[in-house]
């Protein structure tokens, strides 16, 4: 049985035949959501509306219906990352991302690839790479070409490099990638390999807390400038925008506006507004939800203020509260536009009012 490839760019058979095989390639009780009737978000917005999704979500009929009705583009939440695709022996697996891609195709939705190069995920196969058989740079290229090439012509874009800027904005993160291929060079290489693998996909640099830490935003912007000056084929910038209800008004808008300065595509790539992370505000739930709705409105209004050609997509990091990653931190959190039953919340209405 030959596998779709590996870091070595070889079939599993030839790989396993080698002695040098890469050791081989919800808050207390939910406040009762008032019934809000909204047209599908994607029918209101004059730009693509995205959502994070996992393959398992698509086997839940009510959730699959909500996703197909509300979103125009899907971002695999984790199954297009190295942690899923690259097995410990360096071989690749694509069952889950292929299922997401098939659902997108069957429902006329776009597919946004997330993410190729991330300091947080390196895979043992890269860490233990036997460079006697293939160089690190070649394995890096094989991986990017195998993943991006697989969805060539379907993926509308990719987070090529994710979270490259240091937590406090003081420089860039150290990672296996920067150590082995160069602090800046590994990023240029990633963009170049992704462009070669799919010339039609828009290529993004993505990061988070840009609205929370001005220094991080400034360093991110300088990095974009440096990538552009180096001729890296970057088409867009992604601001994840995972915020809490205590986010100071105006910072999301300021961030989106500043990201627009290069004339590149702008992707609000992972939007959610946590109530639980804003406990410092000592507000009651209704007050937190009002803050949340105000931030949904601010983000929508700021995104609409971009020139239409720069509005790549506004993606939520999930649609229904019940699937939010934030539930793992606090099961009572309700950060998304729809409640556990898929009903639109006040936050969704505030967002819709400013994009429609
Ligand atoms: O579903 C499997 C389960 O079958 C298995 O038993 C279990 C143990 O391995 O793993 C489960 O998969 C987990 C998956 O989330 C689904 O819950 C993965 O281990 C876990 O790593 C994965 O976490 C994701 C995380 O990125 C790391 O990839 C989160 O869902 C996802 O929301 C989070 O998303 C990130 C963005 O990529 C970057 N920006 C921040 C954002 C939130 O952290």
Characterize this entry briefly:
The chain is α/β, with parallel strands linked by helices.
Write the layout of secondary structure elements.
Elements: H1 12-16, H2 41-44, E1 49-53, H3 61-70, E2 73-76, H4 82-85, H5 95-106, E3 110-118, H6 124-127, H7 136-150, E4 155-162, H8 176-181, H9 185-197, E5 202-207, H10 214-229, E6 236-239, E7 242-244, H11 251-259, E8 265-274, H12 285-304, E9 311-316, H13 346-355
Parallel strand pairs: 1-2, 1-9, 2-3, 3-4, 4-5, 5-6, 6-8, 7-8, 8-9
The structure holds ligand G3I.
The site of ligand G3I has 9 residues, from loops.
Structure, explained:
With 356 residues, the protein is of the alpha/beta class. The protein has a single domain, classed as Glycosidases (TIM Barrel), CATH 3.20.20.80. It contains 13 helices and 9 strands. An 8-stranded parallel beta barrel has the order 1-2-3-4-5-6-8-9, surrounded by 5 helices. Helix 12 links the parallel strand 8 (265-274) and strand 9 (311-316). Helix 11 (251-259) runs parallel beside helix 12 (285-304) and helix 12 runs parallel beside helix 13. The chain is globular and about 60 Å long. The structure holds ligand G3I. Ligand G3I binds next to loops.
Notable characteristics:
single chain, 356 residues, alpha/beta, TIM Barrel, 15% strand, binds ligand G3I
Low-pLDDT segments, ≥5 res: 12-30
Rg over CA atoms, rounded to whole Å, is 20 Å
Number of domains: 1
**Percent of residues in β-strands:** 15-25%
């Amino acid at each position: 049985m030959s596998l779709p490839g590996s870091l070595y760019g070889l079939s599993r058979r030839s790989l396993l035949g080698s002695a040098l095989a890469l050791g081989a390639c919800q808050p207390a009780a939910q406040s009762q959501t008032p019934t809000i009737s909204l047209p599908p978000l994607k029918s209101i917005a004059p730009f693509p509306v995205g959502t994070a999704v996992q393959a398992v979500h698509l086997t839940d009929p009510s959730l699959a219906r909500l996703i197909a009705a509300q979103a125009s583009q899907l971002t695999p939440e984790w199954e297009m990352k190295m942690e899923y695709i690259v097995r410990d022996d360096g071989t690749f697996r694509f069952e889950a991302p292929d299922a997401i891609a098939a659902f997108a195709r069957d429902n006329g939705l776009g597919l946004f690839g997330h993410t190729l190069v991330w300091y947080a995920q390196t895979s043992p196969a890269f860490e233990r790479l036997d460079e006697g058989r293939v160089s690190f740079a070649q394995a890096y290229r094989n991986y990017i070409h195998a993943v991006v090439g697989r969805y060539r012509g379907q993926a509308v874009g990719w987070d090529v490099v994710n979270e490259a800027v240091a937590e406090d904005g003081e420089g860039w993160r150290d990672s296996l990638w920067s150590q082995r291929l160069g602090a800046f060079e590994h990023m240029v290489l990633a963009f170049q390999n992704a462009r070669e693998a799919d010339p039609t996909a828009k290529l993004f640099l993505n990061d988070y807390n840009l609205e929370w830490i001005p220094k991080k935003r400034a360093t991110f912007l300088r990095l974009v400038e440096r990538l552009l000056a180096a001729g890296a084929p970057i088409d867009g910038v992604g601001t994840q925008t995972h915020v809490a209800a205590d986010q100071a008004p105006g910072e999301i808008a300021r961030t989106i506006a500043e990201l627009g300065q290069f004339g590149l595509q702008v992707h609000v790539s992972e939007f959610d507004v946590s109530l639980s992370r804003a406990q410092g505000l000592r507000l009651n739930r209704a007050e937190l939800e009002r803050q949340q709705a105000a931030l949904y409105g601010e983000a929508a209004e700021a995104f609409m203020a971009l020139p239409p050609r720069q509005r790549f997509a506004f993606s939520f990091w999930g649609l229904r509260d019940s699937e939010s990653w934030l539930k793992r931190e606090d099961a009572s959190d309700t950060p998304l536009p729809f409640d556990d039953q898929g009903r639109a919340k006040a936050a969704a209405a505030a967002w819709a009012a400013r994009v429609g």
